[in-house]
């Protein structure tokens, strides 16, 4: 399949390792991956902060960049982020419609119909749960609110993780409770956000896991930022990075990324296309 | 016999768009973040709340899980409510006609002030200077107790939790469990301090506390001539009012006094008893986590020789017509005040109900208060309420009538932004972000500027302190230093010519 990757603004500039892992994983599975040029951001920050009018041009830009999927140029768009996928699927058309732009709204709906979060694409569209990954670590998984409730991905990420060789998957207590990130919520209500983060960190630490994973870089940034501040020694790793990891007998090897260490010098040895 | 002395607000648009400021308890005086900061420092409060909401969440989940057609019930509840809102004026007229036909009297109140004045007048006409009250959100909304007191009438709350709040000179912090923020040691102290004739050896055993309250209330039930209640539902085609409760104190109020005055928001009407059936299944499981609430009282007009011999229904608008006119906001009127959204909300659980500054706390309060009272500018405490959520969506999943609270929050955030009278720092930042995000060139330039942040990260690659406003993040969380290479740069470098 021909698959376009939505890097997301955060994934491009702050945590590119999740995007790299997504590209490598899909290529390893034999797909043709494109990174549409000119992409910037889905507009979630504007929408969720109430800047619905400011969001209109951002949404229009995003719909333009990913429009080719609606015309059949690509088979799917994938984002390694539940919340950005949720914004595309449930908010783009709302923003357009509220501004009275019905044409943009229907174009946005056509793009949204072929835009997936990573675990949805793998399990529902590509029909794989075992992606041939190897990851010998004790991992706990935080399902993230938007994947859970906006997209209803259910246990798809866990299906994928259970098929990973070498992994020791441990259940996270109160997994479905919000970590307290919430976009600008973390800044606007920093005290409440921190209280929520503290409880999420306690839950992660109670599992004894060495890795906390999720499929939304923003939640991981929040949880990882807290765990790092307390010097807990627990690191956060995006689901895509775990799924992209192999035992080296295959193609791409992604070592568990140490927090934000920038591109590792050896990632240039890519999988054959 | 109707005393429809005011036009039907929802019929003629005569009601003001918003509930008036200064009357009742719909709007707070400080912003949510400021209130929450104080509340979070109260360790006892956090413990009480965490424990209570945890218990009630588990109870609710267990009884909801045992209903095989729960989703169908939710859909039915939602559909009935949508139908009610679509023909509210007609249903209210039908309700009025049937209440009157059964010997009741109907009064229309455009806002809280009119509702309070009507009740005070009726109490005086009944020759009483004391009333017993069934816990009622509508009269909390209007601040009726204070209005009665100013008019020389003492109002006694008979719901146990409400009584605790009243005796403690406190404010309720939860729709269903107004004293959720108190533990039993605190309740014992309040009783010892405030109840005349209380046994000085009172312990904090729940049974002993309940018995003390019972003795205190019993005398009042037997002497009061007038009772004031709210209503959970009103059935239009029979003129029947209904209150559901757990303790039976409400039923004492509804049956013993000579005069009964019910104050209800106009949105509480349902078309028929068949509709009531749906809500009587949804409400108790969602609110107290019980299969059925212990007491369901219904009454229709007056019955000679049995129960109150005078019945008055006050139908109150207080901003609801304005909400009804808002195509998105209208769904907030579907709320049946079960409080399920409060109990699952991670923000409510930490910050507590007082932080919302309104009788309607939690996720639904965060939209209902600004909808009912309006947002007057960037400094209005109401402007901060829609942001008192991480948009995690737990409230929608719990809501028995499927109110899309996250969407309402986003819409009210837009209302908050649109109320700005001068550009705020946030406005400027959002405009700058929009400019960068609609141009690939400018976006790349912004990324480049950001990667200068690497300097701050030093060798650890983590930033631990940033200037304001990002300091609100780094107060409790590190930030990774931006990487050397963006994802798009990496892709272009490793897969030349393959960008599209
Ligand atoms: S919004 Fe829904 S969950 Fe919340 S109190 Fe109202 S009916 Fe209950």
UniProtKB/TrEMBL annotation, chain A:
Region of interest called Disordered, as start-end residue ranges on this chain: 253-273
A GO molecular-function annotation: oxidoreductase activity
InterPro entries assigned to the protein according to its UniProt record, in alphabetical order: Cys_rich_dom
Pfam families, per database record: CCG
Residues in Cysteine-rich domain copies: 4-86, 139-223
GO terms under cellular component: cytosol
Domain of life the protein comes from: Bacteria
Protein name: L-lactate dehydrogenase complex protein LldE
Source organism of the structure: Pseudokineococcus lusitanus
Lineage: Bacteria, Bacillati, Actinomycetota, Actinomycetes, Kineosporiales
TrEMBL record, chain B:
Ranges for region Disordered: 1-29, 475-500
Residue ranges, compositional bias (Low complexity): 13-24
SUPFAM superfamilies on file: 4Fe-4S ferredoxins, NagB/RpiA/CoA transferase-like
Signal peptide: none
Compositionally skewed regions (Basic and acidic residues) per UniProt: 485-500
Listed PROSITE patterns: 4FE4S_FER_1
Molecular function as annotated in GO: 4 iron, 4 sulfur cluster binding; metal ion binding
LUD domain segment(s): 92-302
Keywords: 4Fe-4S, Electron transport, Iron, Iron-sulfur, Metal-binding, Repeat, Transport
Highest taxon in the source lineage: Bacteria
Gene3D superfamilies named in the record: Alpha-helical ferredoxin, NagB/RpiA/CoA transferase-like
Keyword 4Fe-4S: yes
Residue span, 4Fe-4S ferredoxin-type domain: 332-403
One GO process term, biological-process aspect: lactate metabolic process
Name of the protein described by the UniProt record: L-lactate dehydrogenase complex protein LldF
Source organism of this protein record: Pseudokineococcus lusitanus
Origin organism lineage: Bacteria, Bacillati, Actinomycetota, Actinomycetes, Kineosporiales
